[in-house]
Amino acid sequence: MPTPPVSLPTHDRWGNPEGLRSHRVMSGKGPLARLMRDKALYPVFQPIASLRSGAIHAHEALIRGPQHTALHAPDALLAAAQRENLMLEFELFCVVAAIHGWSNFNDPGRLFVNISAAALVEAITTRKGSHDPFDFVRKVGVAPRMLVLELTEHERVTDMGALAEVAAEVRAAGIALALDDFGDGRSSLRLWSQIKPEIVKIDKYFTRNISSHAENLQTLQAIKQIAGIFGSELVAEGIETQEDLRVLRDLNIAYGQGYFLGRPAPAPRAEVEEAACLALKDRSVAIFPELERVSRGGHLRGLSVMPAPAASLQTSNDAMATIFMSHPDLHAAAVLDEGRPVAIINRQQFMNDYAKLYFREVSGRKPCISLANRAPRLIELNHNIDDLIGILTSQDQRYLRDGFIVTDNGRYVGLGTGDQLVRSVTEARIESARHANPLTFLPGNIPISQHIERLLASGVDFVAAYADLNNFKPFNDHYGYWRGDEMIRLVAKLTVMHCDAQRDFVGHVGGDDFIILFQSADWKTRCERIIAEFHTFALELYDAPARTAGGIQGEDRHGESRFFPCTTLSIGTVRISGGQFRKADEIATQAALAKHEAKKAGEGVFVLEKLVDACA
Question: How far is the CA of 435 from the CAs of 296, 298, 500, in angstroms?
């Protein structure tokens, strides 16, 4: 493709600015200076689309050098500008080339043009009082309100005050501001706060592969909150897949940009790529990635702390006895060295020694540290849960007798008991399991409810399925919890395998109960495959005699011995139409009823045709 010609104005105040060292371009011997003199650089335009409607909202102008040369790519051009000391001239040249090139098209959308904060400040302040720096924009026929200056930061902004003044002038001229690549380490939250750009573009680091990175999704949700505070619209950059596009759309990000929507081209385009258009028109709800909270443990919250007096290295045994007698509920006492705990004294053990014959006369005035445990258990208020589980299961169980010392950033806070530690860890694990089941790491009750609420809010039709095992308790009792866990993990593995990861949500309620929220049209076939494969692989968890007999002997709920057939899987399903229900618990009620009917019917897929009145 030949290089598109760019015809720049002869006396343009931006393209050939007086007082901005333009002699460097005219006298430069480097390849970039020659290209600028020959006006051989040209703009291409990449679409920015509305993720709500799919319509093209704007185009970003990107500069290119001659085709099939070392200076064709933008990174090579920027490197050359730095080598030839032409960064300011190069940036202003690109602004002019972009605006002038855009004026050749009668496109109704907005134009995003890149410029660094330093270049913008110098260009505006140099023109102040003598020339209107935006006169060129009007002369070439581009309305200022259709122009967005996109601040690109190669280095941190050093004079924020000057930039704020220039930003006010830019807005007074009717031109909007955007912040580029937010989150890449240079576009700072301070810059966003002080400039308050109308638009913020999120760096592709956070948007690429967001459909499989829960941490990035949570980061984007936080950025959305900041955007709401500052009144900025967001543009997600780097969209390259259908899955990422659907997640970003369902996050209610206003605009998107990336190769999947459209690549840079010499002319603006009227529509996004067909695949992107189809993805945006598909109203099925995207499956958000979930954090594996249980596998990562998390941190302790709400640890019960007992404020308690502490001893020092100089505290005598007599003084320590007085402390214990004044606080009859105190099970132990910490020994501090300049505010930091170094030992713990067990009350019972200390008082037994203190009551011995002649102890007070011989050792009463001696430091109590001699009777202390110099290796106490220290627990930080934000301790990692997995580390605390290690304490509970360690061979050293002195914390059960002595309790433990609670610290905040290493400083003494108070005491805790062994039973408080067990209770706190148990509560933390239960809370964590509400987010992700500790056995399968599938989403737990909270993300299940959140996804149901998103489905209901979208108004789409979906199918709620409840999977449950038949005759699982006798199997678990007969073979033990380890093999029982294997069977539950088998259900999880097969369910995930046969569901569409982009359309169908798989959650683990607990025990052998699973929830599947289908948006796939072939949901019934998927359920049948899950059941058929489970019945094949589950038999391998039985021993040979049980497989031959078709089951095992076990006790029923009344303690009577009887024969139980091999474990099978039932899935109860219910179709939910858009607008039929409003709350997640109403869906849970329908799914639970479908499960009970499926278990009564035996193995297989059961479709609940008559729904329960949610208001009954």
Answer: 12, 11, 21
